[in-house]
Write a structure and sequence with these properties.
Length: 158
């Protein structure tokens, strides 16, 4: 399954990934100005830029093979699509208990305070071929790939 991977050596902390994530999930998918100026309830960015001094990188859902958020969800709202492997939250079933947030080892799930206080996370921009954050990263700090651009020693979460 393809996932979004961050290459922190190229990230400058511009936060354009966050901006384009908001655009992707807004009612004005093709108009950045309207998405920010006319939306009454702007969706949250489902990707977060983490910064520590000169180091910055984008943090988003890893769509884990063994998704702890799915296992911990008390209503079954957090699910993993068996065909695509994408972990998603069925908003109508989410009660805002935040067990998924507590269970996620990456901190990739956030509280969406704008819409009924539900959990929000990266959904790889739904049916798009490439997520908006990857398409619009000016430095190529995000890639959408089957394999990470680096060697990883972490098993399970990926």
């Amino acid at each position: 399954m393809k996932r979004v991977y961050a290459k922190e050596e190229y990230c400058i902390g511009c936060r354009l990934c966050e901006i384009y994530c908001i655009l992707s999930h807004s009612e004005y998918k093709n108009d950045l100005i309207k998405a920010f100026k006319k939306s009454l309830q702007r969706p949250p960015a489902r990707i977060q830029v983490e910064e520590e001094g000169a180091l910055s990188f984008a943090l988003q859902c890893r769509h884990c093979d063994e998704a702890y958020c799915v296992k911990s969800c008390i209503t079954g709202a957090m699910q993993k699509d068996p065909e695509t492997g994408v972990v998603f939250n069925e908003k109508e079933r989410c009660v805002g208990c935040w067990t998924c947030i507590a269970a996620c080892p990456y901190g990739a799930i956030i509280k969406d305070e704008t819409s009924k206080k539900i959990a929000s996370k990266c959904d790889l921009c739904g049916q798009n071929e490439t997520p908006y954050c990857v398409q619009n990263c000016p430095n190529g700090a995000l890639i959408f790939s089957e394999e990470p651009p680096y060697k990883t020693s972490v098993k399970g979460g990926e």
